[in-house]
Amino acid sequence: MEETELCFPQLNTSCVKPKRPLSDTVLIYMILSFISLLTAALNLLVIISISHFKQLHTPTNSLILSLAVSDFFVGFILLFQSMFIDSCWYIGDLMCVVYYGLDYIVCYSSVGTMVLISIDRYVAICDPLHYSIRVTQKRVQVCVCLCWICSLFGLVLLKDNLKQPGQYNSCVGECVIILSKSERVANLIWGFILPITVIVVLYMRVFVVAVSQARAMRSHIVTVTVQGSRKVTAKKSELKAARTLGVVVGVFIICFCPYYCVSLADQETLFNISSAAFLVCLFYFNSCLNPLIYAFFYPWFRKCIKVIVTLQILKSGSSDTNIL
């Protein structure tokens, strides 16, 4: 008989490690590690850039900073996913619930900040004359704090699991939490349906306004020479608006939809370990893409990376560097 391998060999009640090809295990480890390190590194660059350079201390960048902080912790938490590859949790039942609680908090704060960013862009483009009055640094800071406070809703979902950690474990070394049907529906609404609805509605409005402004530019053309250049500019504006809308909404749906659809299903009907790991990686990969979508599109970020990589950031007075 082939000898089974236990998570805790000294305990008879220990969980048994699943047997799978070594290639699958190595592949999952590589994917999780790559996403984790890349997510942490990209978001850390955003955090350092916005925190250090004074020119970047604006309301919009404060939202991007909040997004980067939450996504940075997503990259950190993703390291714990490696324990689930062997289906062995080695750091106790309480830490299992704490892990899931922190996971919910940072994911909710990340999604919530995305909503705040969409609101900020909506006001900036659809009501630019009143933007500086409505969107101030103090108001943005209050909204960010409220966003993080609302993200504590994740702990409410785990209230039954917090009362008695490990109550749903069938063996020692297992990390299992169970949400009721209503809790899973609440998670779906709070973490996916409500945010994506707000984002789609606001960005559709932004897209319509951007297209109408581009068409207005073409209608006021008076010379043939200027007409050609402005047609090109208007066309680029339309394409840019459409591309931004597609990236923001499309990436969010692609990364989040599969995970939340499976979360509504019974846990007994989940896919095999490889499929489940893929859904988890896809879900967390959104936090890796956020700095690319919201930061790499800004020219100042490339300048900040150059200053940081070349260690010019260590020079005195570097915070006053002209980045914009």
From TrEMBL:
Domain of life: Eukaryota
Ranges that cross the membrane: 26-50, 62-85, 97-119, 140-158, 188-211, 245-265, 277-297
GO cellular component, one term: plasma membrane
Subcellular location: Cell membrane
Membrane topology: Multi-pass membrane protein
Keyword Transmembrane included in the entry's annotation: yes
Annotated SMART domains: 7TM_GPCR_Srsx
SUPFAM superfamilies (UniProt xref): Family A G protein-coupled receptor-like
Pfam hit, one: 7tm_1
Keywords: Cell membrane, G-protein coupled receptor, Membrane, Receptor, Transducer, Transmembrane, Transmembrane helix
Domain G-protein coupled receptors family 1 profile: residue ranges: 42-294
Major subcellular site: membrane
Gene Ontology MF annotations: trace-amine receptor activity
InterPro entries: GPCR_Rhodpsn (IPR000276), GPCR_Rhodpsn_7TM (IPR017452), TAAR (IPR050569)
CDD domains (UniProt xref): 7tmA_TAARs
PANTHER family in alphabetical order: HISTAMINE RECEPTOR-RELATED G-PROTEIN COUPLED RECEPTOR, TRACE AMINE ASSOCIATED RECEPTOR 19P-RELATED
Protein family membership: Belongs to the G-protein coupled receptor 1 family.
Stated name of the protein: G-protein coupled receptors family 1 profile domain-containing protein
Organism: Mastacembelus armatus
Phylogenetic classification of the source organism: Eukaryota, Metazoa, Chordata, Craniata, Vertebrata
